[in-house]
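Data availability excerpt. The first of two example chains:
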Amino acid sequence: MNRRLLPYLLLALVVTSPGCATYDRSQGVDNTWRDPALPAPVKGQTTQSDIIEALGPPSQVIGLRDQTVFYYLRERRKGNGAILLVYNWLNENVTYDRAIFFFDNNGVLLDYGYSSEAIAP
């Protein structure tokens, strides 16, 4: 084989070799609001302290005129793809699991809700 041809063959091999990527990552707070062992919140009785004690600190606290909102978020990203020098593709699926709690000025639960999508803990 001609020694001058070897670098070009190696370059061609590197350029055409596929690079694959697969990932599965989660971020945000643990979605313990899905735990069936935890007692369900009771409107008019459960307090902000009860929710923080059961679920930990929220992802976000939102202050409204006469209410406080605790927003809990868990996000999961799964994807795969190929990374080539000339052509790339990526397929990604993002799932959000949310819980939202509304409290009055006294810190008592007015209402709450969970997203319909659940991420396994």
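And the second chain:
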Amino acid sequence: MTNEESDGPLLLDQQLCFALYAAQRAVTAAYRPLLDDLGLTYPQYLVLLVLWERGETTVKDLAAALRLDYGTVSPLLKRLEAAGLLRRERSARDERSVLVAVTGRGEELRERAGRVPGALLAATGLDEPEAVRLRQELWRLAERAGAAADRAR
């Protein structure tokens, strides 16, 4: 038996996690020139997507939507606020809660950002049905992996 046959489950290219990691890095790199035109990083783009979809929201809900912790979201919000794309303020109803909303300048960026998803599909050669199928499979995997992680705790 060769090393390749005996180590099959341990080969790098056989790892699901590595395929996902490589795909995530490649997709993020494909987004980079599209987002550079908007003056945004990929994480900043994700923050704005949530705010454009939901409107004013709390930092806690924003972090949950992005599946990030507060410590990761906070610096993103500071940079977007410094760029004039969003505002943060304490909730009048609950002083512990911070509300986040896009500014007029952030809303102006929305129209230009609307071209990004189509440009990414064109850049990657995916058509809409392929993208929908792939997205559904990835969400299903995320759900199953999340459940497995919860069971392991």
